[in-house]
Each structure stands twice: as structure tokens, then as C-alpha cells.
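Obj: model holo form, ligand = flavin-adenine dinucleotide.
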Amino acid sequence: MSAVQVKPPEGDAIDWSQLDLAAPTPEHAMLAETLRSFVEREVEPQALAADRDEEFNRELFAKAGELGFLGVTLPEEYGGAGLDATAAVQVSEILSTSDPAFALSVLAHSYLFAQNVSVNGSEAQKREFLPPSASGEWIGGLCMTEPGVGTDVLSMSTTATRDGDHYRITGRKTFITNGGVGGDETGDAFIVYAATAPREISSFLVRKGTPGFGLGQKWGDKLGMRASFTAELVFDEVPVPVANLMGKPGDGTLHMMRNLELERLVLAAQSVGIAQRCIEVMLAYSGDRKAFGKPIRSFGQVQRHIAEAFAEYRAARAFVYDVARRIDLTKSGQRVDADATKLFASQVAKRAADSAIQVLGGYGYMGEYVVSRLWRDAKLIEIGGGTLEAHHKNLVNELGKNPAAIRA
Ligand SMILES: Cc1cc2nc3c(=O)[nH]c(=O)nc-3n(C[C@H](O)[C@H](O)[C@H](O)COP(=O)(O)OP(=O)(O)OC[C@H]3O[C@@H](n4cnc5c(N)ncnc54)[C@H](O)[C@@H]3O)c2cc1C
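Output (holo C-alpha cells):
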């Protein structure tokens, strides 16, 4: 059997061995560098206190906007950088090496809200909502989950009823990241999924201050991601202009499915960032810490923690960036891989954080050594944006319909 020869066209040869999936172009390389310096100068110094005080850092968010980190995937004409899913993954990964909760607020704002408007909104909606989102002047979020409905999202009970040139939205959404920004103030703008008929989901843009719209329960004392603001939002016959319906009635399901692919990928990228930091911490500590006259890094059981975490992290990182390379932000079609990245990476991060605590012994249990916070933060990614069990269900359903996807 002869080997298949694949030759690039003459004069257009690419040296694949030099390709860095995590920074494939000079723009990506520059983004990664500026993100790392932002993390070192601005994010890391506040991360411990923000977690302890359970405070969303509005000022830091504004700085992220000034530096262009909130609009990396948004078109340039609306103030974004016009980059791709790889850039979104870079933002999520690098911020999460320091403060996954801050990264979660950025994720909800930039990808669940702004990128969703960018793909699914009308020209007028993009002009109104994207520039203040890219700059960080506004803080946005996405309202899907309800007190009685999470995974079974199509059974939502929030309704939107047509009333002349408005819809009236009634219901409650909970666990909404950026639902509040501090005190009793809501975030500035939200995409709200609501039923316009039984199992007909539509997407609406709702602005802060609309009558009947307000903050319900503020979820304090979360296990992790404590520096992100999680809240219930209440809708009491909220009048939303027909002009704020995204697409047509019933388009919400498509918007949701398309956006969930990106959401799962960027959450997986958060896990990769968490795992990276945990490995760095346990490697350094185990070189310094001595027991029985030797650095603990010389003990096989400690080596196993570091080596296993490193191998899994490497695999997760390559997987996440490979899927990012293939995702077209304007279409759906990577559902299996998006679910699989989060299914895998979320567990890798939790195991890496657990190993890091173990390697640091008693110090690992103490907040100032960072890894206990990362362990708490890592757990969220097994739940938010789809639970592990939801990924199992989606993956097997999709693979069952299209077994060829296994080889794709
Ligand atoms: C910190 C935080 C931030 C969040 N941010 C947002 C946000 O910004 N916007 C938003 O809309 N939501 C947000 N969420 C909500 C999150 O997406 C949901 O919590 C998640 O989708 C799970 O829904 P649920 O909590 O209602 O759990 P449920 O769906 O009630 O699930 C409970 C358990 O049942 C299992 N289960 C359910 N169905 C099945 C099934 N068919 N097969 C097997 N097992 C099943 C689940 O896997 C889980 O173990 C956030 C959550 C948290 C904790």
C-alpha cells in the first residue's frame, strides 16, 4: 500500500512543525503577551482579596475594556478586534491562571452576551449594544437558567407576550453571572431567553432600568468564583420593544445552541488556565520543600501528582486550541467537540488543583497559597454552561446520529 502524499501548493508551503496552536498568528501572539502582562500587573495583586471579599472588581473590568480584552471577537466597526475563537480561548485561559472568577465575568459579558448579539442581532442592535460592551462601559450577561429549570432548558417558564409594539416578559432567571455589579444595581444589558409560545424560545435584549426588571436574590457565599457576581433577575411584565427581539420569534433555540458551543469551549479554556497555574505552583513548591532530607519532588508519589497533571493539562490544552481553530463563530456545528472539551478539561483542572493541594500539604489548604481557591473555582466548570451529565447526554446523542464524527 503506498503512502498518501500531501503536498502544499508550490510557493505556499507552510512549515506545520512551527505552528503554535495557542498563538497561530502574530496578532494572537501579541494578545497573549499583553494578557500575561495585564494578569501580572493588575489581576494577580487583587485576586486573593476579591475572592475573600466576594467582590466583583468593576475597575479592573473597565481596564480590561480599555486594553481591548472585552471585544476580541467583536467586529472592528463596533470597537472589537475582529479576531476568532482562538483569541476568545486565549483571554479565558490566561485570565484564569490568576483569577478564574474575574475571567468568568469577562466570559459572560464578552461571549455569552456581546458575541451572541454580534452573531444574532440586527444592525441596529449591534450599533446600540456592541460599542459600549467592547469598551467595558456596559456590563452584559445572559439569562437562560431559571429557579426550576437548568439542564432541561426548553421547559423554561419565563414568557414573553406580544402587547402592541412591545413584548411583556414575566419570570425569574437565576445564577446569572453579572446579574448585578454591586449593591442593588443590575448589570447594564442582558440577553433573555423567554417562551413566546409553548417550547418556542425567543431572544430579547433587556436594558437596565426597564420598568419591572430588577435584582432578586444575590447569591453570596458561593463555593468558588466568588469574585464574580451571581444573581437572580426578576421580570415582572417588563415591557421590551419589539425592536429588541433578536431575529424572529422562535430563533432563540438556535441562538442558544450556537452560543453554547462557544461558551463550553471558553469554559474549557478556563480549566486549562487553572490547571496550568496549579502545576506551576506544585512544581515550584515541591522543589523547595524538604522532607526526610530531600526535596519532596524526589518522591515518586509526589512526582505522580505533577506528571499526571501535566500530561492531562497538555492534552486538554491541545484539544481546546484545536477545537478553537475549527469553530466558526457565526455557525453551529462543533457541538460534539465543544461538549467534549469542557467534559475533559473541567475534570483535568479539578484533578490538577486537588493534586496541588495534596503536594502542598497543610499549606495547600491555606488561602494565600492560591491552589485551594483554584480547586473551588474549578468545580464550577463541571456545572455551569452544562453539567458533566449534560455533556455525556449531548455527546452520545450526537455521536449516535453521526458516528462519522468520531473520525472527523
Ligand atoms: C456560579 C454560576 C454561574 C452561572 N452563570 C450563569 C449565567 O450567567 N447564565 C445562566 O443562564 N446560567 C448560569 N448558571 C447556571 C448553570 O448553567 C446551571 O446551574 C447548569 O446549567 C445546571 O442547571 P441546574 O443548576 O438547574 O441543575 P439541574 O439541571 O437541575 O441538574 C441537577 C442535576 O441533575 C442532573 N441532570 C439533569 N438532567 C439530566 C439528564 N437528562 N441526565 C442526567 N443527569 C441529569 C444534572 O447533571 C445535575 O447533576 C450559573 C451557575 C453557577 C453555579
